[in-house]
Every structure is written in C-alpha cells, then in structure tokens.
C-alpha cells in the first residue's frame, strides 16, 4: 500500500485559529473513537475522509502518536502582550477609546450573543481580537500604534484567522469571556461619555451663536 504524505501539526503552537475553529466542534462532539479520529485528521490535514481511510495501519498508528498533544490543555495565560503573527506585530490592549464606531457596533452585537453562548466567542475570535489586539510598529527605538481604519481592521482579522497560533488566541479568548460583563460596561461607559461631551459641545456652540431680533 502506498504511503500518503501528510503535513500534520504536532503541537498546539502549530494549530492556527482557523484550524481550531474547525477542530473545536469535533473535539466536543460525542462520536465513536474511530470516527472521531478520522474527523480530526480531516481537519488537521485538510484531506477528505476517503483519503484518510486509505492510509495503512502503520501510518495510522504513527499519526495517532503525533496527535497526542490534543490530549493536553491549551494555555490559559498569554506569555507576552506583544506578539508577531504573519510577519506583523500586535499588542494586546484593552482600551475602548481606540475603537472605531463600526467596531463598537460589531463588538456589542457579539457581546450580546456571547453572554449566553461561549461558542460565539470562539467562532468569531478573529473578529473580537481585532478590537483588543492592535497592530504596532517599532520606530525610533519605541513601539507605536499603527493608524486604524476599516481596511487595516479587515486585514488584521484575516491575518489572525489564517495565521495566529491558538496558543496566542485561546488565552485572550478565555480572558475576554471571563471579563465579558466588564468589557461590555467599559464600551458602553466610553460611548456615553463621548455622547455627553458632544452634547455639551453643541450646547456651548448654540450659546455662542449671535442673537438677531425681528428687525435685525
């Protein structure tokens, strides 16, 4: 029997956020052992079930050994607040003041759904991460935030989805889930403060308007 060549992750560091989003339902669903392994291999290798079923017993046993890392726990703490993904640097920041209005709308919708279903967080983790992990660059020996716009947000989300190791994404996802109530309140508080400032500004501008009488 011809041996089929696979590229198989051997540690959690090799699992991207995209792979984990596809893998998580398989790991959490009750299945017969052999069916579970086949489904896991399909996700990890990107191959169809027909291909997986054609491997030799020797190769099957070898693949099982390489998949042992799936029995270990994912890290729940982030090693460093600044990290590199897909050749670009990012920094974990909790600052509602840096959100674009469109991000605020999306974040509030996700937060509302996530309050009753944690799957919402993990299935949309690449989107959530863009609001709390901002692109940074090093200039003049110091780190600076990159200017944010809609295009940068879309590129960041795609980069996280395709390239971020789950060992970075998961700890942030856990942190976000456990601080869900505070995150929601922080965003709301900031938006209320901004709205209050805007109202005061408008009132002041109205006071400064010149008054004209009926004959003037």
Plain-language structure description:
By secondary structure, the protein is α+β, with helices and mostly antiparallel strands. The chain is 56% helix and 9% strand. The chain is built from 10 helices and 4 strands, in the order ααααββαααββααα. It has helices at 17-28, 33-45, 49-52, 57-66, 101-114, 119-123, 125-132, 150-163, 166-178, 180-207, and strands spanning 82-85, 88-92, 133-139, 142-145. The radius of gyration is 24 Å and the shape is elongated.
Question: Tags for this entry?
Answer:
56% helix; 10 helices; 2 domains; 216 residues; disordered C terminus; alpha+beta; 4-stranded antiparallel sheet
Structure in a nutshell:
The protein has 216 residues and is an alpha+beta fold. The chain is built from 10 helices and 4 strands. α1 (17-28) packs antiparallel against α2 (33-45), α5 runs antiparallel to α10 (180-207) and α7 packs across α8.
Q: What is the C-alpha radius of gyration, as a whole number of Å?
A: 24 Å
The percent range for strand residues is 5-15%
User: How many helices?
Assistant: 10
Strands side by side in the biggest sheet: 1-2-3-4
Described by strand count, sense and barrel closure, the largest sheet is: 4 strands, antiparallel
Low-pLDDT ranges: 211-216
N-to-C SSE string, H for helix and E for strand: HHHHEEHHHEEHHH
Tell me, what's the shape?
A: elongated
* Category by helix and strand content: alpha+beta
**Whole-number total of structural domains:** 2
């Amino acid at each position: 029997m011809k041996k089929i060549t696979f590229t198989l992750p051997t540690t959690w560091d090799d699992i991207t956020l995209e792979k984990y989003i596809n893998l998580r339902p398989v790991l959490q669903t009750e299945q017969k052992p052999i069916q579970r392994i086949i489904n896991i291999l399909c996700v990890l290798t990107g191959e169809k079930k027909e291909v997986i079923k054609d491997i030799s017993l020797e190769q099957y046993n070898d693949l099982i050994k390489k998949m042992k890392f799936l029995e270990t726990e994912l890290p729940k703490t982030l090693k460093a607040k600044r990290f590199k993904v897909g050749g670009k640097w990012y920094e974990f920041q909790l600052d509602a003041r840096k959100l674009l209005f469109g991000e605020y709308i999306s974040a509030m919708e996700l937060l509302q759904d996530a309050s009753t279903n944690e799957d919402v967080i993990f299935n949309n983790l690449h989107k959530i991460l863009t609001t709390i992990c901002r692109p940074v660059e090093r200039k003049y020996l110091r780190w600076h935030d990159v200017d944010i716009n809609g295009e940068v947000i879309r590129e960041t989300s795609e980069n996280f989805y395709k390239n971020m190791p789950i060992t970075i994404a998961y700890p942030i996802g856990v942190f976000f889930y456990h601080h869900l109530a505070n995150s929601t309140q922080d965003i709301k508080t900031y938006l209320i403060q901004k709205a209050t400032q805007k109202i005061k500004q408008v009132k002041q501008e109205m006071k400064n308007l010149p008054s004209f009488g009926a004959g003037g």
